[in-house]
Task: inverse folding
């Protein structure tokens, strides 16, 4: 039981970190990208991609492993599977939608790609918010 509780806490910490980060990105960071300026934008975008990887990569990996651990090691629970499914959807959206849009933007600011980045990121914002609520609920139930 102690192992599952520790896993629940690690899971919640990594997920709640990502919830806060995604809301900041959605409401502040992505919208401000349009104000960087055309000349500086390619360098800005490349730096953004590199530095963002440091901020999100470890937390996303811990969240994935902890979520998988909860479905493998814990009792069968539809909420744990829902949370794990949301993690898979988040990784898929990041890899298949947001990363290619960032790659497009690395060549220079593109208003269409930027608008798509902001609009499609609402899916990740919603999924991480759902995951945050689930993570807290799993702790309450434990």
Result:
């Amino acid at each position: 039981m102690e192992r599952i509780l520790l896993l629940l806490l690690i899971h919640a910490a990594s997920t709640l970190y990502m919830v806060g980060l995604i809301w900041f990105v959605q409401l502040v960071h992505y919208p401000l990208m349009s104000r960087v300026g055309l000349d500086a934008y390619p360098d800005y975008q490349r730096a953004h991609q590199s530095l963002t990887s440091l901020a999100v990569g470890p937390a996303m990996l811990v969240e994935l492993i902890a979520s998988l651990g909860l479905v493998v090691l814990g009792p069968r629970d539809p909420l744990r599977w829902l949370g794990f499914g949301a993690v898979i959807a988040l990784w898929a959206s990041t890899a298949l939608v947001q990363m290619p849009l960032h790659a497009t933007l690395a060549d220079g600011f593109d208003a269409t790609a930027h608008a798509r980045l902001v609009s499609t990121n609402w899916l990740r914002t919603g999924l991480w918010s759902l995951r945050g609520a689930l993570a807290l609920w799993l702790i309450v139930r434990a």
Remarks:
- Residues 2-141 form one domain.
- The chain has one domain: 2-141.
- The mean pLDDT is 96.
